[in-house]
Model the fold of this input.
Amino acid sequence: MNEKQLELLLNPPPGSKLAAAKEFGIDLTLLIRKLELTPEQRLEELQQAMRSFDELRQEGEKWRKQTDGGVKAGDRGTSQTRS
Amino acid sequence: MVELRPAIEALAKHEVEFVIIGGVAINLHSSAYVTEDFDFCFLRERENLKRIVKAFAPFNPRLRHFPKHLPFIWDDQALQNGTNFTLETDIGDIDLLGEVKGVGNFANAEKESTIMNLFGYEVKVLSIEGLIKAKRAAGRTKDLLVLPELEALQDYLSRQEK
Done:
């Protein structure tokens, strides 16, 4: 990706669809790396992301079963303090 | 979760006429969007239906949310009797669409597709423009949420062509 392309994503022209997406909350910096990958690499990354989400979901379900529906952070008797 | 490589390889190896659509297509165009299933649009001609049946038979396809005690026969007749199918398979959830809202049938989807090289095969993937049409037509919140990113990608790529 050359400097001009990078600039386009980091500072999109006002009024453009790129600017609208940024305002909407889309992290355009994520596109920088994705655009440099081949379609097959993008697919491999998607598959890895799917696996990670699946593992997290399974861990969450395990946790809910162990704790009979989950434990709220406030139920633990500890409080978060700022250091 | 769906295993993408075996699904795509099976279709390509059996020379199925198909176009990748949905979240996987969005991702193939560089979005960071994460999906759970694999959707494709297929040609509703008998020979192609037979190819799909052969391609997915090893993955034990059955209709999603269909009572398990009721028989489901995975053959070309079953595919002939419907247009869109939501399947669960041993490799995950796969949606087969004979028609895509906002785009149309396979011939329309094919016209709106780009070719990408995946796992050694040339595979048709619905274009960003096609995906925008499909997502607009679907109109659900989850579809509309991906529009700004798709439009941004379209904008970025069109500026590269100039």
Remarks:
- The first strand of chain B starts at residue 18 and ends at 21.
- The beta strands of chain B are 18-21, 38-42, 62-63, 84-89, 92-97, 99-100, 104-105, 113-118, 121-126.
- DSSP finds eight helices and nine strands in chain B.
